[in-house]
Write a structure and sequence with these properties.
single chain, alpha/beta, 8-stranded mixed β-sheet, 4-stranded antiparallel β-sheet, globular, disordered C terminus, methyltransferase
């Protein structure tokens, strides 16, 4: 099995999701893959579902999307690809080069970049998606919600998947392949887990308003609206436009499209 070393962001930090366990799981389309806390607790990652086509629960989420869609932590791209098949303007971003390449191979547009780095269409996206546990990105829910408010247009829609339990935790974890930690990535990184009550507690003081919440199967979701007016005096911005520039190899600075 081929391996991929951890990628390095422009600020010199490592991208843990580009380490061997995750990259290899995406190549094979299967786990078992976990996030492991220092106390040994394991959070299973649903690699098989992520690498499959969008299921009925996913499709119902995508039916709610408005305008141009930014999929934050797009993984192997099932949602971006489905949106593209519907003729929707959509871009995935992910810190895993393997995930971005997988998305591009399926015909979706994706960018190898963190949500906290500069992105195209800032302030113009109509919808942002935070599914598959991606509320945990960065381990700081307030910082993530503030950043998403910057990316969305005023009154934009955020659809987030929450933990099924009433949980609110911020921890350091590492990626491991299998319960015996075989193929473990060396680097610890911050992560968070939020249930719906915790997300709403963070969102309200930051100017988000609750639009809806629902569950389907064993998955839970919340729809939030960003502030309806911009804090600046600038006129409303138009819908985000995604570059169709083609590149031969995914990079930290370039969007990736299928060949």
């Amino acid at each position: 099995m081929s391996t991929a070393h951890e990628a390095t962001a422009r600020d010199g930090t490592k991208r843990p999701w580009s380490a061997d366990p995750y990259a290899d799981a995406l190549r094979t389309g299967r786990g078992p893959l976990f996030l492991r806390r220092s106390d040994g607790w394991l959070l299973p990652l649903d690699v098989e579902r992520w690498c499959a086509r969008a299921d009925a629960v996913d499709l119902a989420v995508l039916d709610r999307c408005e305008g141009a869609v930014l999929d934050v932590g797009c993984g192997p791209g099932r949602l971006v690809v489905e949106l593209a098949a519907r003729g929707r303007s959509a871009l995935g971003i992910d810190v895993s080069e393997a995930a971005v390449a997988h998305t591009a191979a399926l015909g979706g547009r994706a960018l190898w970049r963190s949500v906290f780095e500069p992105l195209p269409g800032e302030g113009r996206w109509n919808t942002a998606l935070l599914l598959d546990g991606n509320l945990g990105i960065g381990g700081d829910p307030r910082a993530l919600l503030r950043r998403l408010a910057e990316l969305l247009r005023p009154g934009g829609l955020l659809i987030a998947e929450t933990a099924p339990a009433d949980v609110d935790e911020r921890v350091e974890v590492r990626l491991v392949y299998g319960p015996d930690a075989r193929g473990s990535a060396d680097a610890l990184f911050p992560w968070a887990r939020l249930g719906t009550p915790a997300l709403l507690r963070y969102a309200g003081p930051l100017g988000w308003s609750a639009d809806d919440q629902w569950s389907a199967g064993d998955r839970c979701f919340v729809a939030l609206r960003s502030r309806s007016t911009s804090s600046s005096a600038e006129p409303p911005k138009s819908t985000a436009v995604i570059s169709s520039q083609r590149v031969k190899k995914p990079s930290a600075d370039s969007p990736v499209t299928g060949s």
